[in-house]
Amino acid sequence: MKTRNYILFYLNGERHQISGDQAGVMLSDYLRYHKNLTGTKIVCAEGDCGACSVLRFFPYYSGKKKNIFLPINSCVTTVAQMDGSHLVTVDALAKPALTAQPEHTPVQKAMMNCHGSQCGFCTPGFVMALTGLVEKKICQKQTEITSADAKNATTGNLCRCTGYQPIIDAAKNISIPESESVMKRFYSSASQKEIEQHLKVPVKITSENFSFFAPIKLKEALAYLGKNKSVRIVGASTDLGVVHNKRKLRLTQALSLHLIPELYDIEKDGKTRLSVGARVTLSDLRLYVKDLIPEFAKFLDLFASPQIKNVATLVGNVANASPIADTPPFLLTMNTEVEIHGPKGKRFVKLESFFLDYRKINLSPKELIVALHFDIPQKNESLALYKISQRKDLDISAVNFAARVAWADKEKTKIKDIKLAFGGVAATTVRLYKTEKSLTNEKVSAEKLAQALELLHTEITPLSDLRATSAFRHVVAENLFHKFFREQGVGHE
User: Where are the beta strands (DSSP E) in 210-293?
Assistant: First the structure.
């Protein structure tokens, strides 16, 4: 098998070929300490504050996304994971001028004119997030940025000087007609042609402190897993990158699936099922389901930051097996099956059987999750997704809840089928089978809901921790249950 012992990406329009231990360095460290591009800041090293934001274009896209540079966090991803990418940092935005003063972009000018910078440490991250927003507006042929646009685009950026209003004002004053597309300025067909050729060749880097393998076929990935017991599969590394930075785990041997094209597919399985590949990002998924499953798309707006969603995957959120992960409650109500490939072929596991215990899953070290397959809600169904956290955006859930009901009548008085799932109330995300059974084929009434609630409390076993007490979670679970039926206009006469 022909391989290459380096990764290739373009940084601010220049070709970079990296091999050896340097490929295992976090991207933010590489930019600052190896390339002296110090505009990219490191603060949290967890992907929370956005000070390290850079723009990235990667040619494998799914969903309805057009080719566009997107903001990502550089602090929780290795250089190796940027293979095949085009990257732009804040240092390259202003154009050199004949005079001493460089020619700043409309985003930078707006930040200066509206006094959007105080101590200045977070400013580069905000500039990159807003530049990504401008790029999106150019792609959509829109010329106005609203307050809502600005707030949504900068959800993943924290200002410790409480200077948000000037930043929002700056965003609204950006002149999009005067803005030059990042794609037009830093991307070339020649560089893309070279990258596309490289994406057809597997990567195998072996050095003293870091090894990285990126195959182009699933069977190659499975063969590598079978021979390397200590290897870790990296996708976005939004979790692995954090534990690596905090020195709880050293990411020394990595397997990446980024060169396997079919893992980026989102496809309908007929009219009632959806298949989502292991490399489909949450941003891609949101765009795809915006009209198909609008409740899920709306829920994904609250999931992490744009920087995280632009690289994190649905499969990764499931494989992480956190009991407070945001998407598993939804997936549990959607009859989700996990498609797993291994040395004995492929198998399908229902999501209920995939979560075994706290952070334990029905997956052997020699197997890979290839895709998730789940239902598309039908016209006679109601779906609602809820997340309770200390902050609305960019926060870990204390409790999350999904409810899906197939109604027996148009008036929504009788339940034909119901599925209820909670996160944050047990060692794993859980389905409430007893509660569901008590409501199936039943007319909805206050008395029936009260009886169901008694069962609900027996099916959850929440703990007390830093985010919430057990008692609080019981109260929240009950309130969310009531909220769902109130929103349907039934059961509370």
Answer: 211-214, 232-234, 253-256, 266-269, 273-277
The string of DSSP codes covering 284-326 is HHHHHHTTTSHHHHHHHTTSS-HHHHTT-BHHHHHHT--TT-S
Q: What dihedral angle (degrees, nearest 10) is formed by the CA atoms of 475, 478, 483, 486?
A: -130
Instruction: Write out the E strands in 314-388.
Output: 337-342, 345-350, 355-357, 360-361, 368-375, 381-388
CB 55, CB 306: distance < 8 Å = no
Q: What is the pLDDT of residues 232-247, one digit of tens each?
A: 999 888 888 888 888 7
| Residue 446 confidence (pLDDT) above 80 | yes
Distances in whole angstroms, Cα of residue 67 to Cα of each of 4, 58, 415: 26, 8, 44
Measuring CA to CA, how many Å separate 233 from each of 76, 160, 230, 316, 402?
A: 15, 34, 10, 10, 29
Least trusted range by pLDDT, from 87-101, 188-202, 428-442: 87-101
Contact criterion met (CB below 8 Å) for 453 and 479 = no
**pLDDT in the model for residue 244:** 86
236, 317, 480, 447 alpha-carbon torsion, rounded to 10°? 170
Angle between helices 470-488 and 446-459 in degrees, nearest 10: 150
CA distance 95 to 97: 6
Q: Regarding predicted confidence, which is higher, 25 or 238?
A: 25
Chain centroid to CA 309: 3
Contact present, 394 and 156 (Cβ < 8 Å): yes
- Rounded to an integer, what distance in angstroms lies between the CA atom of residue 107 and that of residue 197? 34
pLDDT (tens digit per residue) in 213-229: 999 999 999 999 999 98
Of 14, 446, 49, 476, whose CA–CA distance to 242 is shortest? 49
Q: Which residues pair with 273 in a beta bridge?
A: 269, 375
Token pair belonging to 75: 């602090």
Both tokens assigned to 220: 């190659």
The token pair that represents 108 in the structure block: 């930078």
Tokens representing residue 280 in the block: 């489909």
pTM score, whole prediction:
0.94
